[in-house]
Amino acid sequence: MANPTHPTQYRFSFGPWNISTGADPFGPPVRSELPFADKLRSYKKLGFDAVQFHDDDIVPADLDWNATQKGVAAVQSILDGEGLFVEIVAPRLWEDARTIDGAFTSNSPSDRRYALDRSKRCVDIARAIGCKNYVLWLAREGTYIREAKDAKTAIGRIADAWNAVLEHDPEIRVLGEAKPNEPMDQAYLPTVGHMIGLAYKTVDPDRSGVLIESAHSLLAGLDPADDMAYALYHNKLWSVHLNDQNGLKYDQDKVFGSVDLRRAFNQVWTLETNGYGKNGECVGLDVKAMRTTTLEESTFHLSHSKTMFLRLLDVVRSIDHKRVETLRAERRYEQLEMLVLETLLGRSK
Predict the structure, then answer these.
(1) Which residue range is the domain that position 129 belongs to?
(2) Is there a single domain that holds both residue 101 and residue 192?
(3) Among 192, 206, 251, 334, which has the highest number of CB atoms less than 10 A from its own CB?
(4) pTM for the full model?
């Protein structure tokens, strides 16, 4: 249980891709692109503290190392000027032509080598920009048909790549981000449990953890709050991507709490009562603006998601936790449910 006399001062983050042109698989851009530097300058105005990056958000993927260092320094200068830090860095392996069959699990040895080399280069970029959290979202590590790859071999290749990242830098921490499908039909390591299981098989389990995205848990038919609690039990929840999801559909990245307020409440309750954020972990967002949104309002989804977290945090902190424990002990769950609902409605006594 969090200490009410020393409440967590949460820090918030999002990635620059969360401010987009609104293009999707069914239509072209509907808003002008906001320049990258302007995106970074919007963070503090919105009340955010940290930036999530892919490697090629910082510098193009094909630059030599000298040019890469100059590019990193230019981005670092903007961050320093805005008082921002980098929360996570991740290699964007899924958009290259050499990764259409997966990156680490590709059936092409040369493509696997490209993915590993780029992953190590991403570690170098993370180190150069002062970030120790390295996220592996295994976007195309799966199959369209199960016969295309041997699953046991594929898992081993992912483990080998994870180990290579850990061995490349003794201070880097790898955060596996699970998702059960999309863009692949079926993904390897589709859930938080799978990710944590693999983390214990790495060369350094203490530097192997997870990032949990609300929508990804929902796509697997699981409860995000339970996934978060499971990772917290293992001391391996090192980042979150909060959002919302309307059913088992494509990854919608809706405003946090916009679909299921109680489900969002339980995520905040789990994080708050189990000390998330006490070690500097960020409340990260991964949300998309609606396609009808204008450029002038294309950051509302971010500020709204942060507002929802903070308002639900107030609810969590206001609930009568002694009453909760009494009702749990007496197994009076009907009354417990009503206590939660009335607190959410602002009607608790």
Answers:
(1) 11-316
(2) yes
(3) 192
(4) 0.96
